[in-house]
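ok trying this again, last paste got cut off
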Amino acid sequence: MNDSLSGRLGGVSAAEAALYLMAFLLQLGMGIMAPVLPEVKDTFGVSTAAVSLTISAYGFARLALDLPAGVFVERLPPFRLFLAGTAIISLGALLGSLATRFELVILARAVMGAGSALCMLTSQYNLSRLSTAENRGRVLGYYQAAMLAGSSFSPAIGGAIAVVAGWRSSFAFCAFTALLAFLSVVLTQRRPLAVSAGQAVRAVRQAGAQTTAPGLLANLLVINCITFAMFFHTSGFVNTFVPLFGDTRFGLDAAAIGLAISLGTVVRFFTSVVGGNLSDRFGRRRVLLPGLALTGTGVLLFSQTGGLTLYLAGIVVMAMGRFGNSLPTTLIIDQTPPRLWGRTLGINRFTGDLGAVLGPLALGWVIDHFELGAAVYVTGALIWIVTVLALVALREAPRGRAAVAGPD
């Protein structure tokens, strides 16, 4: 992007910073659901599996829009997509704050998920165009960190608001932060993304080399399996099992659960910043593999008998393992031609959101029909399976061969 348009502060362009700000504002409100799950469950008198639908509905709506959004980002102005996405999130959260029936809560979460799909995919696509092979890990890692910065405060704020004013007020807070994100788009996203002719020529030349790369489709399949497992873990285990475990085993209220989840999110913020930069220096695979192994270890800590200290230790260890959180997306962009970025990102998001949908449903069913601890072994097995798969089959583009579509 032209320096006159972007400007830079500490190596981060103004265009990148605008996307990071929007991501922070959106996530500041979007993480309110996990700590209020027990209160929603008690308000409407529904089962664990039923209340898990509030998490799955969000993922299902994203699932439905991921593939179309992958086409939209290649054809429509990002300004319009961002405006639509933030407005939809705000309207969905407002509906949740007014819900008098459980079905309306599910609908509200679905509407919020639809807006999230548009915003996230458009952001990833634009950041991919702004990045190069040499800094892509950092650029996407910072985006992940911006989302986590918002998420780190969101559960604690949502839980505290729920304790003081009820869970519906937590939804109202989300509507407000989405409105702020809408305003940030109006102020920062009017200019189109500029890519120089020289950058376009280099991208086209490298696209031809990448299209014929051996084993590319198999490698993309492995990456999507990893993404599925990560989303399954976050949505099903962290956002569904962890709150219910804290409520059932330790009698924690929404505020305490929110603080515990926020602790893990703060750790993930720092690991995302570090992980992205390390992947630019040492390679994506070398950073991703130990991260997956550490996440699997953190999950299995919940199988051990112990008190609140072990509960918090499990949250922290899982969070420490997520320093490779943005790397599946980075690997996708590294290995596919720019003309296919929208569609391949859409497929990757679809795979991830499939995990986000199935995670809460599967673990909710397991908890209802077996016991709380059974969810630990299901999730732990999935994480360790994809860890072994990545160790055996994952390949990354040789340094210097990844597509360059960003600034000179």
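PB: full thing came through this time. Residues 1-7, 194-212, 400-408 have pLDDT under 50 and may be disordered.
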